[in-house]
Amino acid sequence: MIDLAELTHCIASTDLERRGASDLLLGYMHDLQDILRQSKLKALVIDTFGNRIENLLREKYLLACDAIDRRSP
After folding, report:
1. Terminus-to-terminus CA distance in the chain, angstroms?
2. According to the lineage, what is the superkingdom (predicted)?
C-alpha cells in the first residue's frame, strides 16, 4: 500500500509541460503493473486503488501527449 501511495504522489507531481513527461508517466505505468503483479496477497483494497490509479495515470499520460502535440511546430 505504501508503494501505491508513493507512486501516486510521483504521478500527481509530474509536470505535463516538462519534456519527457510522457516517458516518465509510461515508466510509472510499468511500475504500477509491477506493484500489482508482485502483490502476494491480492487484497481488494490494493486491486481497487491500483485500478483507480491506473485510470488516472492513463488520463494524465494522454494529457502529456496532447501537451507534446501543442509544442510541436
Report:
1. 42
2. Eukaryota
> How many whole angstroms separate alpha carbon 13 and alpha carbon 31?
16
Q: 72 in helix, strand or coil?
A: coil
Which pTM was predicted?
0.69
What grid cell was written down for 40? 502476494
- pLDDT tens track for 11-36: 999 988 888 888 999 999 999 888 88
Cell of 43: 487484497
Question: CA-CA distances (angstroms) from residue 29 to 57, 72, 73?
Answer: 7, 24, 28
Cα distances (angstroms) measured from residue 44 to each of 18, 30, 37, 54, 57: 35, 20, 14, 15, 20
Residue 32, Cβ density class (10 Å: 0-12 exposed, 13-18 middle, ≥19 buried) = buried
Q: How do the domains of the chain map onto residue ranges?
A: 2-71
